[in-house]
Amino acid sequence: MDDIYLLMIIALAVLAIADLVVGVSNDAVNFLNSAIGSKAISFKTIMIVASVGVGIGAIFSSGMMEVARKGIFNPGAFYFDEIMIVFMAVMITDILLLDFFNTLGMPTSTTVSIVFELLGAAVAMALVKIVANNGSVSELVNYINTDKATQIIFGILLSVVVAFAIGAFVQWISRLLLSYDFGTKPKWIGALFGGFALTAITYFIFMKGLKGTSYANQNFEILGGGTMKNFLETQVLQIVLINAVFWSLLSYALIAFAKTNIYKLIIVVGTFALALAFSGNDLVNFIGVPIAAFNSYEAFVASGKLASEFSMEVLAKKVPTNNWLLFMAGMIMVITLWFSSKAKQVVKTSIDLSSQGETKERFQPNFLSRSFVRFAVASSELVSMLIPKTLQTKMDKQFQVPVISLSKEKVHELPAFDLVRAAVNLMVAAVLISVATSMKLPLSTTYVTFMVAMGTSLADRAWGAESAVYRVAGVLNVIGGWFFTAFIAFIAAALVAYLLNVNLQLMFPLLLIIAFGLIARNYIVHNKKVKQEKAEDQLSQAESTSIQGVIEESAGNIASVVKRGNKIYSNSIKGLSKQDLTILKKCKKDTEKLSTEVDDLRDNIFYFIKNLDEMSVNASSFYINILGYLQDMTQSLEFVVKATNKHVNNNHKKLKNSQVKELKEVENALDEFFSKTKKAFDTLSFDQIAAILNDKELFVLLNEKIQAQVERTRTEESSPKNTTLYFGLLLETKDLLKATMSLIQEYFEANQSSLDAVDK
User: Fold this and answer.
1) Residue 304 zone, left/alpha/beta (φ > 0; ψ -120 to 50; rest)
2) Domain shared by 294 and 175, yes or no
3) Rounded CA separation 277/283 (Å)
4) pTM value?
5) Which of 272, 441, 613, 673 could covalently link to 53 via disulfide, CB atoms 3.0 to 4.6 Å apart?
6) What does the alpha-carbon distance between residue 605 and residue 279 come to, in Å, rounded to a whole number?
7) pLDDT for residue 116
8) Residue 563 located in a structural domain
9) Last residue of a domain, one of 463, 489, 520
10) What's the CA angle centered on 470, arms 466 and 474, to 5 degrees?
């Protein structure tokens, strides 16, 4: 039986590596948001700075490992066999939960997940012991460290409110003092800001880095024979004042003589510090449990006792973690940071929600977001009434975003927010995490960095009338995901622990196979999705400033819609004839995606018209008409897909063979028409386009099929549903054809007009 515990230790080591990968993919990007969003430095430089911070932070994280051992439960109340089940349940649950959020591209908290998993698994095992001994539920307090658990949970939840409020306040003050025109302010203002920010970050590095090392407890003569830890704890004011003076003077020297952008320096140092914080604070979430399990196994083997009789009081003691082990864990984190594809989805969510400019809104408004925005608007109006107009005007001027003139093709190069906000994000997050770390609270890095970023966005008026309901909805969705994390982590870990306890020999390998199978499946599905998106003909925004340029650019979009529309229509008829709901559901997804892309193009009309030169204003009418016809095409496709899906899903009577045959004829004819159209626009062959416009055979075919169905309905048709469906499909196909022909006509005439204008 003892062999199974050795296998569990090996499995936990593998799970630790997997947890490092899925955890970093979700969590580590949070310290990259400010640097990436502001584009203060190159992406490569950002990654190098972050990697160094992660590596150093990993080595300095040993002081936090005890949280995984005895922070949540009382180890002395459990035996070795029970504690191993708890640890195994926690790790299996953790990798599945974090991988789930990675797949969704949603940030969550590795700290919250590990805390509630430990709590859930420990409660489950405690209840098993209580029931076996005919005890009372009230005895749970003997197993769970309620004071520590409450402290940790309260600290995590409080961090959400505190981080948002402090982030908003500091950003509001910073913007009020610096405005967006911070580059023209006197040198001493930049020096003071740099001094304040760098002091806060440096203090954080001292408290988070040096205080957690083995050197912190050694005596140094330079410190009067005292320890570094004692010095850092007792001389806080002196350290802060000396650093403030030093960094302010250095900042002024760098600005005045070295012409250094102090805000970029703050972002570089802040990124390093927050990366260090992430690694130091969160490494315990990934390897703390396996290390605790290994320490337990070593003590168990040395004891010579039975697994069911060996008390785990040993875990109550502090056990130093091997630095080489921490270093290897840090390297895995760094490698994951560079190569994780899922990490990009998570960082994009945070940056989009805090962006100063317009972005493609991912989240849809809901009742709560609308209510929050209405309340915020009403409160803002009330406050404005209380503030004198002259003061209000001066304040509004400080928050006025400068207009940056860039060509359309370079708009994507604009940062999501400016250097001041990025610096505030890093400064506030670093300070909050340093305070929590000094108090030995595993504060959620995700909660802090995300909520600080959201608070600064609100204070910076990034959530305007055009985007507020979407941004707030996004924040509420993310926070809702955090509560979901806590609930699922508790329940799932408790369930896995119970199953392992029922039959360890069977459930241990079975649950491992299921866990790694699900991760492998998610990985394959994710990669397949990424490849499909890359291979798919995505619709592109018009970037040209001339009508001829817009005409040529629109050809690609038309060809793409025709190709994808042809595929959707063909599969819809195929799914209907075979009564295959899987095919029809796929058609529905494809249609929704195509419709969304066309809507996105329409949403960009404002910026397209603004970008046109004076001589090409007529291009706007052409572009608007083209988009209108593309939308008509997608609406017709949506009807076809919806009608066929509804018919099959409701198990209505199958179409007659004659009806299926006729629909196949229509589908084949439409396929040929769409293929010719796509080829014509791919090659910009206007001779072919003219030939397509003169071809009316498909209209004749559709009219024939409609008439044939009329005759069938009068003589032999017995199903009203079939009749409705068949007429609906034919009429909508006719509308689809009309919209396509109108689009082709518009394109042909616009091109001819453009060429005539050039000739003149």
Assistant:
1) left
2) yes
3) 10
4) 0.73
5) 272
6) 45
7) 87
8) yes
9) 520
10) 150
542: DSSP letter = -
- Beta strand spans in 563-714 (E): none
Burial of 693 (0-12, 13-18, 19+ CB in 10 A): middle
> Please, what's the b/e burial string for 641-666 (b: 16 or more CB within 10 A of its CB; e: otherwise)?
bbbbbebbeeebebbbeebbebbeeb
Cβ atoms < 10 Å from Cβ of 371 = 12
Same-domain status, 112 and 152 = yes
- 579: in domain: yes
User: Are 447 and 559 in a shared domain?
Assistant: no
Instruction: State how far the Cα of 303 lies from the Cα of 721, in Å rounded to an integer.
Output: 77
317 sits in the region (left: phi over 0; alpha: psi -120 to 50; else beta) called beta
Instruction: Report the alpha-carbon distance of residue 540 to residue 191 in Å, rounded.
Output: 44
Residue 64 lies in a domain: yes
Q: What is the CATH number of the domain that holds 702?
A: 1.20.58.220
CB 243 within 8 A of CB 202: yes
Tens digit of pLDDT for each residue in 428-454? 887 887 777 666 665 677 788 888 988
- Only one residue has tokens 């658990």, namely 149
Count the domains in the chain.
Answer: 2
> Secondary structure of 37-69 in the HEC alphabet?
HHCCCCHHHHHHHHHHHHHHHHHCCHHHCHHHH
Highest mean pLDDT among 314-318, 609-613, 621-625: 621-625
Both structure tokens of 13 = 């080591």
Q: What is the SS3 string spanning 189-251?
A: HHHHHHHHHHHHHHHHHHHHCHHHCHHHHCECHHHCCCEHHHHHHHCHHHHHHHHHHHHHHHH
pLDDT in tens, 386-413: 888 888 888 888 887 776 554 444 444 5
> Do the domain assignments include residue 404?
no
SS3 of residue 362 by DSSP: coil
Q: Supply φ then ψ for residue 688, to 5 degrees.
A: -65, -40
- The answer to whether residue 736 scores a pLDDT higher than 70 is yes
**How wide is the angle at C-alpha 628 spanned by C-alphas 626 and 633, nearest 5°?**
95
Alpha helices in 304-388 (DSSP H): 323-339, 342-354, 367-386
Say yes or no: 501 and 547 in one domain.
Answer: no
Same domain, 648 and 502: no
What is the distance, to the nearest Å, from the Cα of residue 475 to the centroid of all Cα atoms in its chain?
A: 11
Q: Residues of 383-413 as b/e, b for ≥16 C-beta within 10 angstroms?
A: eeeeeeeeeeeeeeeeeeeeeeeeebeeeee
What is the largest distance, in Å, between two alpha-carbon atoms of the chain?
A: 108
- 534 contacts 701 by C-beta, under 8 angstroms: no
Helix, strand, coil fractions of the chain, as percent rounded to 5 = 80, 0, 20
The pLDDT tens digits of the residues spanning 664-719 come to 988 898 888 888 888 888 887 777 878 888 878 888 888 888 888 787 777 776 67
* Domain containing residue 213: 2-399+423-520
Distances (CA, A) of 236 to 203, 224, 277, 386: 9, 16, 19, 40
Nearest residue to 441 (alpha-carbon basis) of 18, 128, 155: 155
Residue type, 557: N
Same-domain pairing of 208 and 331: yes
In this predicted structure, what is the pLDDT of residue 407? 46
Based on the fold, state whether residues 193 and 240 are members of the same structural domain: yes
